[in-house]
Amino acid sequence: MNKKDIIICRCEDVTLEEIHQLLEQGYTNIEELKRLLRVGMGPCQGTTCMQLIQREVSKFLNIPIEEVKTQKVRPLTMGVKLNAIKEGASDES
Amino acid sequence: MKASYVIIGAGISGCSIAYNLAKKGVKDIVVVEKDYLTAGATGRCGAGVRQQWGTEMNCRLAKASIDFFSVAKDELGYAGDIEFKQEGYLIVAVNEEEDQQFAKNVILQNSLGIPSRKITKEEAKEIVPHLNTDVILSATFCPTDGHLNPFTMTDAYYQAAKRLGVTFLFREEVKNIVVNDDKIDKVITTNHEIHTENVINAAGGYAKEIGDMVNINIPVFAERHEILVTEPIEKIQGPMVMSFGMNIYCQQVPHGSFLMGRSNPFEKPSHNIESSWQFLDEMAKTVCTLLPPIGNLRVIRQWAGSYNMSPDRQPIIGTTDLPGFYVACGFSGHGFMFAPMTGLLLTEIILGEPLTIDITDLHIDRFKSNQQITIEKSVV
């Protein structure tokens, strides 16, 4: 299958080809790939793509996958509407 | 290894300085970054670029920087997209004091060629239809303010600097700077000893610690500022909407998501950049009041970064008492939008060239005497 047609990050429509292009340019840190391609920045927060990207970095650098650092995990765990947060705050006060 | 100049920090300031020095023909420049490109404040910023300031200096720096951003893609020969969008900043006045101050700001801005204007709240609603005009008195609008992608913009400087021969050392931390007889001898990092006579401190939130290594007291401190991003939707908002009184900035970026932040008046100086639920609560209340429909959007992620705060909320750029030790810090939350001028002007200072903008007033010595400093109030 063509690399152009393989979607790695479904939230942000990032393909395997785009990942490989940046790896070849020397951006081998997942935080850098995230910032330049938006992988892991969508609603799922990298739940789907991060292991796939770790595997690609591991293959490219020829290092064990456990040595490829993932991105910093940030809140929230799931999307919550701002209105719900606002109302939640006033309920509790 | 040896270097003519060691630049500490690969945020946008460090990359802009590296590019500008290299463009003037300086060889053997080394940039040392303790993490990855844009790991510090640059990669965490609100991504807005504005010219509506309250001090003449900030207005001048901002205008010239935006002039550069508008041609940056070509000037830097960047293949990617820096996502420069000029759809303005709408700054709303929420009390009489702001209303009067903004009228004065606009006169100052106009005198410097910045096309801002004072508008009524009805006019503001035409520009941002979902604005709640019940909570504002008036507004100012500058159509040439806007947005840029901080990652790709910094990457553009980085790639251009690399093509000009600049060496970047990532994931290397500066541990010490050795000075002998009032002269810099070397920079010691976690992996290298770099022999050099010149060091440029562009370390953002850690600028003070770098100054301490050479006994130069820089009156700055790091302060956490938090921010969040929502899910993307179709475009409904052109300009950044900002209020100092309500303590909010909120814009829809080209990607479709909304970025918003506010500051915590009780925040203590520290390097803490963790996210807090308190911010989420306050941010939700504020944005739902000023821009009610945004309340229907889901928060995807929140994060924080450090402002490097100076006593007058204006940058510190220039030489210091130690020959060969230069500073570009204290941007107080606005280093991203001033970066083109930071790089150009510090390069002109270092090479002894005439200054494109006279920034003598931004020298660190302004804090030594009891001279009156002009405090920038237009800061969130």
SSE layout and pairing:
The complex is a heterodimer of chains A (93) and B (380).
Chain A lengths: L6 E3 L4 E2 H9 L5 H8 L12 H12 L18 E2 H11 L1
Antiparallel strand pairs in A: 1-2
Chain B lengths: L4 E4 L3 H12 L5 E4 L15 E2 L6 H14 L2 H4 L13 E5 L2 H16 L5 E4 H7 L10 E5 L3 E2 L2 H14 L3 E3 L4 E7 L2 E7 L3 E3 L3 E3 L5 H7 L7 E10 L9 E4 L4 E5 L5 E5 L14 H14 L7 E12 L6 E3 L6 E5 L5 H17 L29
Parallel strand pairs in B: 1-2, 1-12, 2-8, 4-14, 12-19
Antiparallel strand pairs in B: 3-7, 4-6, 5-6, 9-10, 10-11, 13-16, 13-17, 14-15, 15-16, 18-19
Helix pairs in contact in B: 1-6, 1-9, 2-9
Gist?
The complex is a heterodimer of chains A (93) and B (380). Chain A has 93 residues and is mostly helical.
Please tell me about this protein's structure.
- The complex is a heterodimer of chains A (93) and B (380).
- By secondary structure, chain A is mainly alpha-helical.
- Chain A has one domain.
- Helices cover 43% and strands 8% of the residues of chain A.
- Chain A has four helices and three strands, in the order E-E-H-H-H-E-H.
- Chain A has a two-stranded antiparallel sheet with strand order 1-2.
- The longest helix of chain A has 12 residues, at 50-61.
- Chain A is elongated.
- Chain B has 380 residues and is an alpha/beta fold.
- Chain B has two domains: 5-45 and 151-220 and 312-367, FAD/NAD(P)-binding domain, CATH 3.50.50; 85-145 and 222-307, D-Amino Acid Oxidase, subunit A, domain 2 (D-Amino Acid Oxidase, Chain A, domain 2, 2-Layer Sandwich), CATH 3.30.9.10.
- Helix content of chain B is 28%, strand content 24%.
- Chain B is built from nine helices and 19 strands.
- In chain B, the strands form four sheets. In chain B, strands 5-6-4-14-15-16-13-17 form an eight-stranded mixed sheet, sandwiched between helices. Chain B has a six-stranded mixed sheet with strand order 8-2-1-12-19-18, sandwiched between helices.
- Chain B starts with a strand and ends in a 29-residue tail after the last helix.
- Classes of the chains: A mainly alpha (93), B alpha/beta (380).
